[in-house]
Every structure is written in structure tokens, then in C-alpha cells.
Amino acid sequence: MRADGALARVIRSAAGRDGPERCDLCAQAVPEEHRHLYAADREELLCACGACAVLFAGEGAGGGRYLLVPSRRVRLAPVDTGPLGVPVGLVFFVPRADGTVTAQGPSPAGAMRWEVEADRWAGMCAACPPLATMAPEVEALLVNTVRGLDHHWIVPVDDCFRMVALVRREWRGLAGGGRVWPAVERFFAELTERP
What we know:
Layout: H1 5-14, E1 35-39, E2 44-48, H2 50-55, E3 66-68, E4 74-75, E5 90-95, E6 101-107, E7 110-116, H3 118-127, E8 139-144, E9 151-156, H4 157-170, H5 180-189
Helix pairs in contact: 1-4, 4-5
Pfam families: DUF5947
């Protein structure tokens, strides 16, 4: 995940330095709640107005270069992510089209990234079958076990980008300060299931 495109705009707008968001394809102004496309070759999100989003709604639309980010969110029972070997409690796992899986944890500098061993991810999918239904590149397993919490969700990757932006915006000092963890807890409290 790179700090370009939609993520960069989220960070700038949170700091009050940006005008209205626009569709990255046609430059039409978009409302606060709008769809995103994932540019696979650049690993970045693009904002899409309603008309442009429709163009990428079908299977195979965009030729794999642009993928429409789905809107579904599914709350999961706690999943033991320990076997995946990721050393942080706030992390998201993105399956890739090539079969690999990356784990990314937000930090004040952006997302830290790890590669997850394929056989360990396959074991997770066997233990939690909904994980096998995730759309590659555009859906993620989002986990928060920080400060005794136990949140596990399948979410669109734009939710993960929003969380990374939130951590960057709220982090203070070496340990995060007093604002980041309450903000992360609010982020998870406001997640709602969507089909």
C-alpha cells in the first residue's frame, strides 16, 4: 500500500489541506461516501464517482488493471492469527491474485508489510472458511487485538486505508500518545456489517 491516490487525499483532508474529492477517472466531484477502484499495478486506491464505478462492476471489467472495491463487511468470531507470525496486534491481511498474502500493520510512517507463508494462510482458511471467500487484492482480514480487544473482520481494503490514515494522523511520540488508541477503538466500534 502506498501513500498515493486516495490514501494521500484522506491524510491531506484530515489536516484540512484539500478541496472536495474528485473521481480519479473523470474528475467529477464525489460525495463523502463513494466507491473506490484498486489500481493493481500501482497498489493504490482511486476514487470513483457512481457512473465510473458502474463501468468496473462486472467480472473481468477493467481487464484486471482496475478492480472495484466491494462494500461487504463481515464480523468474524475471533481468529487465532498467531500462526501467521505477524508481531503486531493491529494488522490486516490481503490475499493477492498470485496466491500470496501480505500482512500490513499501520504505523506513524504508513503501513509496515510482511509476507505470510502460503501454507499457514491455507490453514487459517481451513479453520475459518469465510476467509476463503475474500476477493483477492480488494478485501482484507482486519484484526485488532491491541489493549485486550478481539476484533476480526472481513472488510474492503479502503477501510484498511482509512485505518492507516487514522493512525498516521493521531500518532504522537514513540508509543502513539493518548489519542491514537481511543481513535482506533472508535474506528472498530463504528464498523457495521454490510452484505
